[in-house]
Amino acid sequence: MNLWCPITIVIGHSLDKNLTPEEIALERYQIIRPCIMDGANKEEVAAAAGVTSRTIRLWIQQFDRDGLAGITPRPRRDRGARRAVEPELARVIEGLCLRKPPLPIAAVHRAVQELCKRNQWRMPSYDVVHDISSRIARDMKVLAHDGQGAYEQAFELLHRYEADAPNEMWQADHAQLDILVLDSSGRRAKPWLTVILDDFSRAIAGYYLAMEPPSSMRVALALRQAIWRKDDQSWTVCGVPDKLYSDRGSDFMSRHIDQVAIELKFELLQTLPRKPKGKGKVERFFETVEQLFLTGQPGYSPAGTSHTDAVLALEELDKRFQEWLLQGYQQRQHSETGETPKHRWEANAFLPRLPESKDELDVLLTTVAKPRLVHRDGIRFQGFRYFDVDLAGFVGEEVTVRYDPRDLTHILVYSNDSLVCRAVCFELSGTKVSLKEVIRARNARRREVKEGLNDLLELANKHVPVERPLPETPVESQLPSYPKKKIKRFACDDD
Predict the structure, then answer these.
(1) Which of 5, 33, 69, 237 is least surrounded by CB atoms within 10 angstroms?
(2) What are the Cα distances from residue 62, in Å, to 34, 35, 42, 73, 462?
(3) E strands within 237-309?
């Protein structure tokens, strides 16, 4: 009696590629089981499973000989090999695909056809050529088509430095922001942002936002804010870093910044030549500025924007950016550190290294202008007039002016590298000097000059007495004598 029932057969022998060899063996056993256990008809089983009867007989023989191991599929020994293409021809195809500029696959296939005709080789199909091209390693394609720089940027191993403590290393960089603002002249332009970022905490130590492109002056002004204590008590990041890391731009490799590093005793580090890697943290900050700050500001103008009106003045953007920086970014948990930048910088409870005074820092970092002449009414600089009573002793002399472009209310005046005074522009600062103060300074300077003059004259007279001059001849005796003549009178004069 035939107890086999077609319902028990695994219908549709799929041999799914996602199945493991062991699962495929079990599936094959379920197909041939009725034949082995119940003597079912092999042709009917094969038809129901969608395979040939010859395959069913082969599986039964393999199972009888080796069990499940006999019907477990084994990988092909030539798997991955191109049986239709000679090895030398395959390498020729790869070489054609790696030419610069890159050739279309159709062009490579035509070139291969001509080559096979000449050498009487078996001609590969378009799909075979395409398959060979797709199997070329990606790093080799990038090197061949895009050059060594692109290869290094994409595939070379990168050592990522991580600072172990706050102020161990700062990173500095510039970026032009995708926002249109109004400058002091009312013109539309995109400003530049220079930032100093603490590598350990990701906190921003200082920044400089202005229209001018990258320069050593921008770096110095950002460092000035980063190093000294801030007016806002919530912005605690300050001090001199151990290292300052940047790219190899002329603004970071200037003599000015070198001198600052020597005086403040920190090390300058630059990226390797033609390999500007390692600044991912500060570059990521610029992306954060783009995504979380700029997109919500009027005048946001990313690449590809047709027309955007400038709404904010530069000063207003600076004010908004600092508010976002202190209340947003510094208070927001960083995805890599798991802490807010502010808390991570403050958690170490260390004492930052600071210069002796802010004046000393200004001497190193603020811009040095050309010599300026001290006039009787002060110093004329940048279209403004600056005055201080201490300038009384330098009228008519040239001095050196140092200033902060962000704050033109005052300038620092130096003579022979010594600070003379802090001259103020009354128009910008809103302060005034009274007439009494001017008269007092004027009289004091006059007395100082007279006393110095008398001292010098007495000393000179003591050592070199003045000889008595010869008696002077009256002026009248030196004049030529002319004969006296009477004035001629006319008859009408008697009337």
Answers:
(1) 5
(2) 16, 14, 15, 11, 133
(3) 243-246, 267-270
